[in-house]
Design brief:
Blueprint: H1 6-22, H2 28-41, E1 43-48, H3 52-65, E2 70-75, H4 78-90, E3 98-102, H5 107-111, H6 120-124, E4 131-132, E5 137-144, E6 148-150, E7 174-177, H7 181-190, H8 192-202, E8 208-210, H9 213-222, E9 227-229, H10 233-241, E10 246-248, E11 254-263, H11 270-281, H12 283-293, H13 305-312, E12 317-319, H14 324-339
Parallel strand pairs: 1-2, 1-3, 7-8, 7-9, 11-12
Antiparallel strand pairs: 3-11, 4-5, 5-11, 6-9, 6-10
Helix pairs in contact: 1-2, 2-11, 3-12, 7-8, 7-14, 8-14, 11-12
């Protein structure tokens, strides 16, 4: 008889614990098998735009649940990540295992078959609401883009609607992030032409244009502007916690990007990539993500505290569409309209 080594026993115990924590019923066996295969691979290369210290804290939680997998995080914004994946694919290289990006950027991923198909529900009992594009993506977090304010410059209750920002009193005091991601999402609620008309009306108030959610938040915190459109509730929360005079409003509707994780087609560590992505979408993983990075889900059943706050205030949350062609069209239309403001 061959007796298992102490290392094998510990690995088995860890797999069982992981399955109990994250699997459901008979599906737990697949957590076992995939976690074991992921440990055999031993590594995971993950690309995403999130801040490195926050992601490292998130990875530490993942490693506590599933030890033995070295996760390397490469910080890169969605558009450059997409271009790099495309270029490497043309060269016959795959240097990433898992990557995240908003649905607005998924068209080329799907068109070029850059994401592997995964049975998230069958293997991990994932909430079907989190599975997109026939298993080629899974929701990891939502990034809400509410109206954000400098609390030294805006009084409580002073802004009650998006149209309030068109008033002369806010001339030169509103910041608009150049990509207009939130406004592209709002087309699902308002319609395309009404959004473009709203952008045109904002011209009269000479909005400040910056590129990027973080620069937008920093301009708001410094008092350069009173209101910002295009930064995220999670970013504002962190700045507020650090003492900055900023806050976000539950003015309805609130657009939200849906960020998804995908397993790169032909990657070197597919099981580790699947395990990491499925863990993020699980109940315990979603909690760990929120506690370490301040990102959270506002749809499905793993709702973040920010999502609950919005719902309790009666704010309508508008998620970006899953139709990649439609998203690309909306993003192009909004970016062109905002480009006229520069």
């Amino acid at each position: 008889m061959v007796f298992p080594t102490r290392r094998a026993l510990l690995a088995g115990a860890t797999a069982i614990a992981g399955a109990a924590a994250f699997g459901r019923g008979a599906q737990a066996a697949n957590w076992d098998a995939i976690a074991a295969a992921a440990r055999q691979e031993g590594k995971l290369v993950y690309w995403g735009p999130e801040e490195i210290p926050l992601v490292h804290a998130m990875i530490a939680r993942f490693n506590a649940a599933f030890p033995g997998i070295e996760v390397t995080h490469f910080r890169i914004e969605p558009a450059p990540a997409l271009q790099r994946i495309l270029a490497e694919g043309q060269a016959g290289q795959v240097n990433v295992d898992a990557f995240d990006m908003p649905l607005l950027y998924m068209k080329q991923v799907l068109d070029r078959n850059l994401a592997a198909k995964v049975d998230w529900v069958g293997d991990f009992a994932t909430d079907p609401d989190y599975v997109l594009y026939d298993g080629r993506a899974i929701s990891c977090w939502d990034l809400e883009i509410p109206l954000c304010i400098n609390t030294d410059l805006v009084q409580p209750g002073e802004i009650k609607s998006w149209d309030d920002l068109l008033a002369p009193k806010w001339k030169g005091k509103v910041l608009l992030e150049a990509r207009g991601l939130g406004l592209a999402v709002l087309m699902a609620k308002w319609g395309e032409q009404p959004v473009l008309d709203w952008i045109a009306k904002l011209r009269a108030n000479n909005p400040v244009i910056v590129v990027g959610g973080s620069p937008a938040a920093e301009a708001l915190s410094s008092g350069r502007v009173a209101v910002a459109i295009g930064t995220y509730s999670s970013k504002i929360d962190l700045m507020k916690k650090a003492g900055a005079p900023v806050d976000w409003l539950t003015v309805s509707p609130i657009p939200s990007l849906v960020y998804v994780m995908s397993v790169a087609q032909g990657c070197a560590h597919p099981n580790a990539a699947k395990l990491f992505s499925a863990w993020i979408a699980s109940e315990k993983g979603a909690q760990a993500v929120y506690e370490t990075t301040n990102f959270g889900l506002v749809h499905g059943h793993n709702i973040s505290p920010n999502g609950r706050k919005m719902r309790e205030a009666g704010a309508e949350i508008v998620l970006e569409a899953s139709d990649s062609d439609l998203n690309q069209h909306r993003l192009t239309a909004v970016a062109a309209a905002i480009g006229a403001l520069k």
